[in-house]
Amino acid sequence: MEQRPVNAFGRPQTSSADLGAIADFVHPVQFEDIWSHSRARTSEQRLALAVLERAILDLQKYRYARRRRQQRIYRETYEWVTMDDYTWPFSFLNVCTLLNLSPEGLRRGLLSDAAYYFEKAA
Hints:
By secondary structure, this protein is mainly alpha-helical. It is built from six helices and no strands. α2 crosses α3 (68-82) and α2 crosses α4. Mean pLDDT is 76; it is low at 6-14 and 16-24.
């Protein structure tokens, strides 16, 4: 198992490079289309992509948070990803649909080891 650098609290450090892990849960064609900016996107698609990027970073950055505010951000992001809701325009399911991504595959990848921590912290 690869050892990751740890922060001052002994927790694994995360970086924006970790976003590359999303490639494992998105079809290569979708990944290339999203990240290479190979086609023009609407402003709604750019906003949806920004929302998804923020969620990915929040799940990674605050997974082991000790401060209440950071734990709340993690919990809310986790709940956003797990919610099966089409009523809100920028719900996880609508964001995936707008970006032509598989919600189930992306959700499975984003929460693969987060579910254990979330249930343990609850």
